[in-house]
Every structure is written in C-alpha cells, then in structure tokens.
Amino acid sequence: MASARGEFSSRFGFIMAAAGSAVGLGNIWGFPTQAASNGGAAFLLVYLLLAFILAYPVLMAEIIIGRHAHANAVGALQQIARGPFTRRAGALTGRVGLVVASFILSFYAIVAGWMIAHCLSSLASLAGAAEVAEWLTSFSFGRNASFVVVFMLLTIGIIAEGVHDGIERWSSRLMPMLLVTLGSLVLYVLTLDGAMEGLAVYLLPDFSAALSPQLIINALGSAFFSLSLGVGTMLIYGSYLNDQENLPLLGGLVTGLDISIAVLAGFLVLPAMYVALHNGVEIFNSAGELISEDTLIFLVLPELFTSMGLAGAFLSALFFFLMSIAALTSSISMLEVPVAYAIEEHGSSRRSAVVLIGGVITGLSLLILLNFEALFGLVITATTRYGQPLLGFVFCIYAGWIWRRDALLAELRKGSPEIAGTLFWRIWPWHVRLVCPLLILGIFAQNLLG
Fold first, then answer.
1. Which residue spans traverse the membrane (predicted)?
2. Looking at the domain covering 2-449, what would its CATH class be?
3. CB distance 54 to 220 below 8 Å
4. Is 228 left (phi over 0), alpha (psi -120 to 50) or beta?
5. How far apart are CA 430 and CA 258, in angstroms?
6. Which has the closest alpha carbon to 411: 200, 238, 185?
7. CA-CA distance, 219 to 210, in Å (whole number)?
8. Which pTM value belongs to this model?
C-alpha cells in the first residue's frame, strides 16, 4: 500500500521534509524575541527541556500512527480504533484536522506572500525601480492578493508532483538553502556594531523571569506549535515512511533540527534588533519591552536595512528570501493533509485534488483579505490557540489509551527490534498517555483564559 501512495526514498528526504514542515515563520521571527523578553538563555533551557517533554512525544505519536496505517489521519485513526464509537471519533478528528490545516494555510499564505513581496522589493531597490519597490511593500489588496496567488501556485506545484518528486525533492533542496542562508546572515550580522549587545540579551540567563508559571506555559506552547503538531502533518509524513525505519531515532533527529534552527535564528534576530537600535531604530515599546514580532519583521528590520544603504538592500533580499523558504517548506505539509484525504478516501487523482483544494484555500485567503480586520486574527486564534491543542490532545489519547499496546510495540519493532528493552519504550507509552495530555490541556486552558 505504501509504495502505491508514494514513499520517502531516503532517511535524509524524510528528515528534510519533516523538519521543513516544523520550521516555519514562527521559529525564525517569533521564538527569538520571545526568548529575549523572557529570561534569555534561561528561557532557552526551559524551552529545550519542554520540547523533549512535550513536543517530541507527541511528534512520535503522530509518526507512529501514520507509519502503522500508511494512510491519512481519518483512515489512520480508524485503523487503531477499538470499536464503533472510537472509529467515528477518529474519523471526525481526522476531518477536523484537515479543516484546521486548511485554514492555517489560508492565513499562512497571506503572511508568506508578504515575505515574497518584501524580498522582491529589496531586489527592485537594488535595480533602481523605486516605484515598484514601494508598491511591493504597500498594504493593498492588489499586492496582498497577487502574492497569495503566487505563493499558493508554488505550493500547489510542489504537491502536485507527489511525495518523492514533489515533497521530498523540494524539501531536500529548500532546507539546505534555508540553513546556508540563515548561517550566512548570522555570521554577517554578528560583525555589525551593536550585535554583541543583542547577543548578550539572548544568551545571558535571567532565571527569575524564566521560571515564572506564565512563562513556562508560554514555553510549552512554543514547544508544541514549533513542530506543526495537532493537525496531522507529521502523521501524513510518517505514513510515507517504509517499515524498516527506526522511528524514535527519526523523531529525535527532526525535533533536534527544528530546535537547532529556532535557536540559531536567535543569533540572527536579536543581534539584528540591537544593530537597529545602534543605528537609531527604536526596538522598545512605550512600556520599555521589546516590540512584538509583527512590528519587528515588517517595520524594524526594514528600517535597519534601509539605514545600511546598498548592503542593507542585499541583506534585506537575503533575509526575506530565507523567510519565504521557511514558509514554503511548512505550507507544502499543510496542503498535503487535505490532499491525501481526498486521494485516499474519495478516489481523486493527485493533480485534480491539489488544484481543487489549493484553489479553495486560495479563495479562503482572498476572503480573509477582503475582511482583514475581522477575519485574520480570528482565523489565527481559532486554529492555533484552540484547534491545534485539542487535536493534539486527541492524538495522545489514541496513541496512549485506545491503540492496543502490543500492536503499538509491534509497529515500533519493525524498524527497531530491540525497542522493548530501551529507555524509550519504558518511558514514552506512559508519558504520552498521562503527561502529554495534561500539558496540552494546560496550554489550551491558558489560551482560553487569555
């Protein structure tokens, strides 16, 4: 069944695809400022700890279920169900997950379009096309709609080629490009005046701030969301793995790469902010706190790049190119969730499913743009604050309580015959059964209470 559906041809291809799904815009411009505002290096330590307490176990739940079923989330949860009720609940969970993934992609495409437009604006500035550069950074429906369509066409084009020729091939190209671009930007920014002050803010610990209950809940949320958990993206990628792969090892590599990129981004964003401060650009709000992520990405950093002249325009193009890659590697996993469902549950061809579903999501994005003030924040809140945690909770319940323990062990033994004697098997089944659901409910309660 797996080969007919498509399959990752190499471990490297899966790691690049799964890490690409996890590494998104939030890792690069959300995580660093959150760390700097909440204890610096102490927050990093808390985040790293919680990533392996919560994110890695839930990631493993999705990958194991997916590889066992070699099916989309609806079919996979139905396969491990024990009776009619859990089969219906599993089907409902899978369908809600694909709807949530689609709505996440609908607002993600808008933000990703902004990134592409800013990248092209910098190139236009280098070419002396000032009017074009100004239009590319204007907040107009025409500009926004145009680049939503451009971004969605890129995403649709990759997914239409399938698992090996589309997802794996392009992830294996884009992720190394992302790493090289990010590393190059870090090395350059660290040479600029003011960078060391930002580096100190990022790396010097303030344990009193980092150990507050509020911050720990925030770090839990960051760890959970950083790996694209809860909507079935990792489940569907797991379903394209062959049965010989060692799943705990693969999950650890994906988690480690995702966290490493988020931490590395901190070495770019925080020094860049203080370089901006050194150049006279304000980075603090009226309360004396570091500015929010959206203000940073679209106001502060562009002002910094402008203040640097020709070098700044080149640096801006490179930075927004990096952001565009991060967005694209995430978007292809989101689109694959509903596409896989349409192919497997309704017999659609891949190309027709991709075009139809991609077109519907593009339409949703345009609808959000037409009612931006009312819908943009609402869609983000409904999907990421409420939808993802609840769906992640259900995945944990299925992996920890509903799926028979002997069948779960048999699945893990396919790629790791000695798994029963490892520390992973001694800890993970009980951890995903008890600890992860409680932590996810804590995230949800915090979001609910504001």
1. 12-29, 41-59, 96-117, 145-163, 175-195, 215-237, 249-277, 308-332, 353-380, 386-403, 423-445
2. mainly alpha
3. yes
4. left
5. 25
6. 238
7. 9
8. 0.92
